[in-house]
Amino acid sequence: MEYVLQAELTAPRDVQGDRSIFAGASVADVSGLDRRKLRPLLIVEAANPEWTSVPLVGWNLARAIMRKTDALLVTQIRNRDAFLRAGLVPNRDFVVIDNERTARALYRFGEVMRGGGNKGWTVVTALSSFSYYSFEREVWRLLGDQLVAGEFDLVHRITPLSPTSQSPIANRLKRYRIPFVLGPLNGGLPWPKGFYDVRGKEREWLSIVRKLHFLMPFYHSTRANAAAIIAGSHHTWSELPKGCEERTFIIPENAADLDRFPFRQRELTGNRLGLVFIGRLVPYKGADVLIEAVARYQGPLEIEILIIGEGPQRQELEDAVRLKDLQDKVRFAGWVEQKDLAAVLSNYQVLASPSIREFGGGVVVEAMSMGLVPIVANYGGPAELIDEQSGISVDFRSRETLIAGFSQAFKDLEIHPKRVSSLSMGAAARVQERYTWDVKADQIVQIYNWVLTRGTKPRF
Questions:
Q1: At residue 23, does pLDDT exceed 60?
Q2: Angle, nearest 10°, between helix axes 418-434 and 399-415?
């Protein structure tokens, strides 16, 4: 197990005080401390630069915060080798926790309970919450003495992202007046009415009783003891217990690396409209909806679709393409590594995302960064990422209305071809203003300063 050999020493924290950093410090002393880089402990159980989804979010956000502070990152041992390959130094930049025996056992149990790969994700999330108890117990065992001694200004738990998860460590941190920041939290979006058949196909039976997570041992104390909470969506904000409003900030968890996903103006100057779908090939992601919408479109545009992703629905989708005689319009690219994604997207103009239950929308932000125009289902995370100047959201009440809405969106671009250019610029500008990792890290550092009474409450 990795261990911190020597942490930067700071003056001891006044554990009897409230939120002030040091008791009895003069104005000159405090001014000097304000110039010192903050020393947060970042708890990022899932963080890996070589993976996707939550681990990649955890990695990118933690690294952005580390560039602006003197942070130490604590993660699960499975991420250690990837951290080393990325150039991080053990004991200086990160430490690891080995609770792999517990985590592996619960993961294997979850694989049985979920009923198949790429399905039953609510079951996986629920069981991972129990695994996380053992992770934080080891965090306190490893770093508790340093925390109590005041060697960190605060603790920020970045992952897990699930709003159902708890942090047993929050109680102890509160006891020693160590500020605790939680989030971004996102997930748990209810299944939209009219799509319960899709919920069945996804084997999301546990989502029916999801609200039982309010009864889990540390749910309320985690939120009550947090000095600040970051919600990744308005839905997550709405689920927080009463009394959290003044301590909660909305910051979507996803962002883009502008160097990896550089902007290029997209235009509709001829009759070719290139669409990209990116995601797991499972029912709720809606690749079948996109194929049907293209089949129904009647007009002069030659629409091409590139479907990026793998999953259990692929054979069904390929059969649908043949049945509708769309072989010359639809191409399946399979899985594409993130490092290769920008090159693959370079010749397309639109990202089409008909997903009916998307929490965050990382691929939407990355595509917007490159200037692709997002067309998204108006429900969940992706719809919150765009406005009328940067994308198109499609209202729907059923699968049929979702298909019709996407088909109409293609028709609107046909009628107003210059809109592709203006939305392309608007999408990239919105990402540069709001959705880069550095922007998010700046916002989070503002929250840190507010928690530590070093600054006013930020308004995002």
A1: no
A2: 110
